Amino acid sequence: MPTHTFTLTCVCSGDDADWDGVGVGEAAAILGVSKQRVHQLTTAPGFPEPVLRLKATPVWRRGDIVEFAAQRRGPGRPVAQHGRDGEQG
């Protein structure tokens, strides 16, 4: 059976001893969105860069995703504001 040797380079900074990586599924749970929405959010301004890209998923620091979640509005679309006559306004 062939073996492969590769090197992983982590772009972690600070004290990485407590590093906790999350994939798309965990990021979705933290953000309160679907996994598909996480993929869309990866192009949003301020979305953290993954520290590692596996074949199956990118991997982010949990703290980076939690921080991004705190900076964005809640999940889903904002509720439309309606005036007394039912028009949006």
Largest sheet: 3 strands, antiparallel
Percent helix: 25-40%
Structural class: alpha+beta
The total of beta strands comes to 3
Low-confidence stretches: none
Shape assignment: globular
Distance between the termini: 66 Å
Residue share in β-strands: 5-15%
Strand order of the largest sheet: 1-3-2
SSE series: EHHEEH
Count of helical stretches: 3
Please tag this protein with its features.
globular, alpha+beta, 3-stranded antiparallel beta sheet, 89 residues
Topology:
Layout: E1 21-22, H1 24-31, H2 35-41, E2 52-53, E3 58-61, H3 62-71
Antiparallel strand pairs: 1-3, 2-3
Helix pairs in contact: 1-2
Description:
By secondary structure, the chain is of the alpha+beta class. The chain has a domain at 20-71. The protein is built from 3 helices and 3 strands, in the order βααββα. α1 crosses α2. The chain is globular and about 50 Å long.
What is shown here, in short?
By secondary structure, this protein is an alpha+beta fold. The protein has helices at 24-31, 35-41, 62-71, and strands at residues 21-22, 52-53, 58-61. The chain contains three helices and three strands, in the order E-H-H-E-E-H.
